[in-house]
């Protein structure tokens, strides 16, 4: 029996796994996310001195758990508009 179902990838999980596989191959990580699914990776990178910065697309779409763990390492794209906007 065949079931008509869509295959859903788990990009978040795959990116977390790849970051850990490559852990010794980079000095610092810059993550562009506000997704709470990355909490464990953010925490681990921060605890091990590998977290450079978290760049979240917006304050509105940034998980409270990301805010809590990233704290001083958290920046928002909206705050950088003047620096990155094409003029």
Keywords:
single chain, 15% strand, 87 residues, alpha/beta, 3 strands, three-stranded parallel β-sheet, globular
Describe this structure in words.
The chain is of the alpha/beta class. The protein has a domain of 58 residues. Helices cover 36% and strands 15% of the residues. The protein contains four helices and three strands. The chain has a three-stranded parallel beta sheet with strand order 1-2-3, with helices on one face. The radius of gyration is 16 Å and the shape is globular. It starts with 10 loop residues before the first helix and ends with a helix.
Quick take:
This protein has 87 residues and is α/β, with parallel strands linked by helices. It has four helices and three strands.
Tell me the β content. 5-15%
Oligomer kind:
single chain
Largest sheet: 3 strands, parallel
How helical, in percent, are the residues?
A: 25-40%
Task: Show the helix and strand layout.
Elements: H1 11-21, E1 29-32, H2 39-47, E2 51-56, H3 64-70, E3 74-76, H4 81-84
Parallel strand pairs: 1-2, 2-3
Helix pairs in contact: 2-3
């Amino acid at each position: 029996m065949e079931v008509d179902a869509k295959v859903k990838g788990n990009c978040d999980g795959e990116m977390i796994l790849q970051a850990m596989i490559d852990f010794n191959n980079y000095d610092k990580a810059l993550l562009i996310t506000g997704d709470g699914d990355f909490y464990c990776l953010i925490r681990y990178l921060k605890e091990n001195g590998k977290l450079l910065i978290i760049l979240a697309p917006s304050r509105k779409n940034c998980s409270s758990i990301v805010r809590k763990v990233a704290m001083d390492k958290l920046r928002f794209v909206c705050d950088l508009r003047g620096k990155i906007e094409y003029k």
